[in-house]
Design brief:
253 residues; 8-stranded antiparallel barrel; alpha+beta; single chain; 38% helix
């Protein structure tokens, strides 16, 4: 019939405009993460009762360094901060597990047998309003985060991407990081594996808010930066910035 013929023609036209998707041979994480190491990261966000923030900081400063320096635990405290601008009365901790998921499991099992840590968890629980964490991998084109002398402020920029756009994001930022590394402000770049998915965290270090503004404005005068912003903004569903101050015992000062 004429109706069926019309439907057949329309389906044929649609097929001409269907985007052909190449079958992937590997997971996004294998394409974007570093191949030469097997680091896994955990980021923790602790929302502290305002009246407990000083006591919380003292508790963390008395316990977390002992885990960081203990060779029996295959983990390192990359940095620990309080949020200055952004979500208030919040602590952010970033851990690295050298050896990936087996190292994470080993540390968790050992900590359950560590009385000091279990007492710390009990006391910490009395001070918190809420907490969440994510397991992350680091982008292959970012430097591995290392201890820094200070004083510095740190900016954690978090991006919620549209599902399916992580590879595209990585391709643009693999070029962009060269533009943003001239002042050594780039600390680390990560993408989520467990927790909120399709989320990216970029960590930056600046001497103060004024230098942050100067460095960020200077990027617009370098070739390629405007193009990166133009093509990556449509990939973002939501973004957030935190300005953070290191705790006294943070390896990143």
């Amino acid at each position: 019939s004429r109706f069926l013929y019309r439907q057949f023609c329309l389906s044929g036209l649609k097929s001409l405009f269907v985007r052909k998707v190449d079958p992937r041979k590997d997971a996004h994480s294998h394409l974007l993460a570093k191949k030469e190491d097997n680091n896994l990261y955990k980021i923790q966000f602790h929302n502290v009762k305002p009246e407990c923030l000083d006591a919380y900081n003292q508790l963390c400063e008395s316990v977390l360094p002992s885990i960081h320096t203990n060779p029996d635990y295959p983990c390192e405290l990359v940095g620990t901060w309080n949020t200055w601008y952004g979500e208030q009365d919040q602590a952010v901790h970033l851990w690295r597990y050298r050896g990936g998921y087996p190292a994470l499991t080993e540390v968790m099992n050992k900590l359950r047998q560590n009385k000091e840590f279990m007492d710390y968890r009990t006391e910490r629980g009395k001070m918190l309003l809420s907490r969440r964490n994510q397991l992350l991998l680091e982008f292959s084109f970012w430097n591995e985060p290392v201890p820094r002398s200070g004083p510095n402020i740190y900016e954690l920029r978090s991006y919620q991407l549209r599902p399916g756009t992580m590879i595209e994001w990585g391709n643009y930022w693999a070029r962009a990081i060269e533009i943003r590394q001239q002042n050594q402000e780039a600390v680390g770049g990560f993408f989520s594996q467990i927790g909120s998915l399709y989320q990216v965290h970029h960590l930056w270090a600046y001497k103060d808010l004024e230098s942050r503004e100067t460095i960020r404005n200077a990027a617009w005068h370098r070739d390629g930066w405007d193009e990166v912003v133009y093509y990556t903004v449509p990939l973002i569903q939501h973004m957030e910035s935190r300005i953070m101050i290191p705790m006294k015992t943070s390896p990143m000062k």
